[in-house]
Automatic annotation (TrEMBL):
The keyword Hydrolase applies. Residues 72-254 form the HD domain. One of its GO terms (molecular function) is dGTPase activity. The keyword Nucleotide-binding does not apply. This is Deoxyguanosinetriphosphate triphosphohydrolase. It holds the Pfam family HD. InterPro entries: dGTP_triP_hydro_central_sf, dGTP_triphosphohydrolase_C, dGTPase, dGTPase-like, HD/PDEase_dom, HD_domain.
């Protein structure tokens, strides 16, 4: 992989099959062009309604109204901050090894933008919202008359539904800028590729391979996915900047989940201290000099700083492997106390935060809302453009935005009837995914309570 293709200005057009890699030699003011392009991407994201919706989407606590709890929006802002710190560390360490990359110096805005959009396709109610969609189709997909005619990939798009793949769909198709765009946000291929964590289609998932362990793209976006990867020269590989984005994401949610849960009263200082000491085999973390709350803040801040340094070191140590596409590990994996502590915090979150009754009850509420919405809307969309709806179904369908019908017509032009059913189901899933937590609950209560 070459940086003059990895970091470039080209934008994917859905109206044309014509794609080509960026060529540094053809740009008289190449670095300035990069700056202009990535600043444009940043503005498009910040001004989008899809980005604003993240302020009412769950990070950990569904339907929470306390100000101190993170949302998808504040989480994404924190990830953007972390990507800068990681990139600064990487550039500094590469420079010390005599490796100077102009394009990497111009990638700060690119990575910030990637951080802001990395969760933009996720449904309401956090990761349990994704699970709710998977469960619905695993239980009821085979009952749909069109299901048996779908290809394996088309079925798995719903059975293995993934917010990462929905993000690419939203960015390249669903976002329509109040009707003025048919190419999504029309971001650069480099920015789009920087959020593609996985390279597998839904029928290719392999849990043992980092690049293939989750769905990277849906059948509906296979063509645009391949175009993005061709332009950046990453076909079959991860974009190198994805390693930094993934590390920033892990750092952001791991430390913020611990902080939010403590403020929420889900665990005690003593419980966290004893857990960390046992898992790391040292008592050097969480030293209480007076206030327990202050000790936790100091511990999180100092440990986070060390994890930054470790992650950037691992990236540089394995730079050649990353650039050749042979490095298939996370970069937060150094054998040191701080990284051991980091992984211990993940375990602690799962055991003492995500499994608490407070969160589980809210997840059940979110599941029931998504389940009922799909129960009602899927039969309706399967009639769209095929057979008459009754009055009740017409009223339900009126909740769909006009842009959903327009996208369906573009995607089904010259399609078989079976493929049309696939895109009809997409309309229902897209509709639910675009909802915020509050809107999903409000719509559910308005229609069905």
């Amino acid at each position: 992989m070459q940086w003059n293709r990895l970091v470039g200005t080209f934008r994917i057009s859905l109206k044309s099959d014509k794609v080509w890699p960026n060529d540094k030699l053809n740009h008289k003011n190449y670095l300035l062009d990069l700056s202009v392009a990535f600043n444009s991407d940043y503005r498009r994201v910040i001004k989008s309604d899809s980005f604003r919706r993240l302020q009412d989407k769950t990070q950990v606590f569904p339907l929470e109204r306390n100000d101190f709890v993170r949302t998808r929006l504040t989480h994404s802002l924190e990830v953007a901050m972390h990507t800068r710190d990681l990139l600064i560390g990487v550039i500094s360490k590469l420079n010390k090894k005599g490796i100077k990359i102009d394009e990497l110096n111009e990638s700060f805005r690119l990575l910030e933008t990637a951080a802001l959009i990395h969760d933009i396709g996720n449904p309401p109610f956090g990761h349990f919202g994704e699970e709710a969609i998977r469960i619905w189709f695993s239980k009821k997909g085979e009952l749909l008359p069109c299901w048996s005619s779908f290809t394996e990939q088309q079925k798995e798009d719903f059975l293995r539904f993934e917010g990462n793949a929905q993000t690419i769909r939203l960015l390249t198709k669903l976002h329509n800028d109040n009707g003025s765009s048919e190419t999504g946000m029309n971001l650069t291929a480099s920015t789009l590729d920087a959020v593609i964590k996985y390279t597998a289609g839904a029928d290719q998932v392999d849990k043992k391979d980092l690049l293939m362990k989750k769905v990277g793209y849906f059948y509906s976006e296979e063509k645009v996915f391949k175009n993005i990867k061709f332009v950046t020269g990453t076909t079959g590989n991860r974009h190198p900047l994805v390693f930094l984005l993934e590390a920033a994401d892990d750092i952001a949610y791991t430390f913020s989940d611990i902080e939010d849960a403590y403020n929420y009263g889900l665990y005690s200082y003593r419980k966290l201290k004893s857990f960390i000491d046992e898992k790391t085999g040292t008592n050097r973390f969480l030293v209480n000099d007076g206030s327990e709350a202050a000790s936790i803040q100091d511990f999180l801040r100092e440990t986070q700083k060390k994890v930054y340094q470790s992650a950037s070191k691992i990236f540089v140590d394995h730079y050649d492997e990353i650039m050749s596409g042979t490095f298939h590990e996370e970069i937060i994996n150094e054998e040191c106390d701080e990284v051991k502590c980091f992984h211990a915090l993940k375990e602690f979150s799962y055991e003492y935060i995500f499994q608490t009754k407070t969160i589980l009850d809210q997840e059940v509420l979110g599941f029931n809302i998504i389940n009922r919405l799909l129960d009602e809307f899927v039969p309706v969309v399967l009639k769209y453009d095929k057979e008459p709806m009754n009055k009740y179904e017409e009223r339900l369908f009126n909740n769909f935005p006009r842009s959903a019908e327009e996208l369906y017509k573009r995607e089904t032009e010259s399609c078989s009837e079976i493929d049309k059913d696939y895109y009809r189901l997409k309309m229902a899933v897209d509709f639910v995914c675009n909802m915020t937590d509050g809107y999903a609950k409000k719509l559910h209560d308005t229609l069905f309570n």
